[in-house]
Design goal:
This protein is α/β, with parallel strands linked by helices. The protein has 21 helices and 30 strands. Strands 12-11-8-6-7-14-15-23 form an eight-stranded mixed beta sheet, sandwiched between helices. Strand 1 and strand 2 form a beta hairpin. It starts with 23 loop residues before the first helix and ends with a helix. The protein binds adenosine-5'-monophosphate-propyl ester.
Amino acid sequence: MTSTVPTDSVNTQLHEERTFAPSAEFAAQANGTQELYDAAAADRLGFWAEQARRYVSWSTDFTQTLDWSEAPFARWFVGGELNACVNAVDRHVEAGLGSRVALHFVGEPGDTRDITYAALHEEVQRAANVLTELGVGAGDTVAIYLPMIPEAVVAMLACARIGAPHSVVFGGFSAEALHSRIADARAKVVVTADGGYRRGRPSALKPAVDAALDHGESSVTSVLVVRRTGQETPWHERDLWWHEALEAADATHEAQRFDAEHPLFILYTSGTTGKPKGILHTTGGYLTQAAYTNHVVHDVHPDTDVYWCTADVGWVTGHSYIVYGPLTNGATQVMYEGTPDSPHQGRWWEIVQDYGVTILYTAPTAIRTFMKWGRQIPDGFDLSSLRLLGSVGEPINPEAWMWYREVIGGERCPIVDTWWQTETGAIMISPLPGVTPTRPGSAQVAVPGICVEVVDDVGAPVERGVAGYMVLTEPWPAMLRGIWGDPQRYRDTYWSRFYGLYFAGDGAKRDEDGNIWFLGRVDDVMNVSGHRLSTAEIESALVSHPKVAEAAVVGAADDTTGQAICAFVILRSEAVEEADEPGEGGDLVQELRAHVGREIGPIAKPRQIMVVAELPKTRSGKIMRRLLKDVAEHREVGDVTTLADSSVMTMISEGLRSD
Ligand code: PRX
């Protein structure tokens, strides 16, 4: 794996002096306390055992908190048994909270549905019976490919209820991407919809499933189809309507107990190679940390708050902070199907106003987009219900942080900048609101129970103010348990860079007060609008086009999306003659962008594709992306002495200038 020493290219203002102490009013009601830090520091495993018993109901209590004897393969809460769906739904109904709204669903076209815990309980039982009738048993995988509609939550929980790990595939991924994920997970059933709404128009989803299953042999025996848009849908023998199947199913289902380490879900994420990794999470530890962090970091008070996490359930943020964390805590939340600008740019703020949202958790890219649209838009709505703001997915620049605080938070809401990953399962680094004074642009400190360090090339802690690699020094309950079907890749990716330390792939540095500042990825992973994409994955999509001989992809800094995808391609000689002038523009570039969209999904389409005659390579043939990044970011090209042919960069720069 390649990794370069991180630089300060993302957060340039590392000497941020502004600090915001929690208000006495917020601190007085906060779930987080200084005692949590003290307790975790005094007895870390004892602390986690306590959280596990506090946040989760166990059918059988565990006998050992952590078994790390087969490191890096962890077992948490050994001997414990539980059911994640029962924790998220049944027990709230049993506690008399059935009439509490679990989900205020807001559809993009303006349709709304309030779903109580009692209603959710009935739905998950029916869905669990349907899946069982379709032959899904404990250990079988189910792929879920849905828009942001309540059925996505129901399907996930129904899988958890019967011990069938779900593999949710973001609805924006293409048929190709869906196919490879279904095949890798060997899914037995796919849950999808006829379509969803995107910017005011219905957009079909089911045809992508048909195309994904059209590759010959498939493990999939049935496809459950939710009717969302009512559009015409091609039908196959394996297809069933979700509403018909649920209606016909029994409304009661007795949940079984599963081992704490029973697989809960697989979620694919991009790594440094072209093949996405199926990140495996199990039940007890994951649920504990998701619920605990939602309680102390988002400060959810389930009886009074209206919580809204704007992520899609197709990403880990949706898994942990729409489904498992808040529902395990019995919270009431908003779930919104659409985009922030549909039908108008104030849609989010209208939702906050209409539902009295108190906690908002979103991504810096959204905040920067709102900044661009101007404060007059949120200023037109009553946002006084908000009391806490959260950020996730990428470093938040201090300007965006301050705008979020002033314009959205009315200067009264604490901001929690939360660092974590698909692999960590739950929040790892974040201030505790009401306890930690916050600082614009820094994710700050490890949450109680988590141990982090910033180290140099050989794994030794660096001094404050020095850039290094972010590592986790102790196992944590929600940690990934491996990569689906590839234990060696798990060791190699995360545990072999530094002996005994988890390598996160992020550059970081601590300021003089010990706050952690993230400096972006140190590997070939890009972060575009908070979505994680690998350069290798997009390169292989590009070279799968018949006109492309070679491709190199870099993430260039972008004011709104954090990073933007820039591709450099060398055409096959036959294609060169037909192509437009080298450089940007032309039909070919559009054709290549569309091709990447088909191979991976629209989120992976490069912002810019530059046709070049050569790529900068070292003598051993490795592409020097650093130099291409200089070009993409319009900087003076750096040191070219290690290039096999140092004139290549001059050629590229001049070729592009002459366009
Ligand atoms: O680079 C870090 C960045 O997002 C990566 C994880 O991406 P993913 O697995 O898709 O999960 C995103 C949602 C948890 C990290 O390696 N990242 C995430 N949150 C932050 C962040 N970078 C800086 N600050 C954050 N708060």
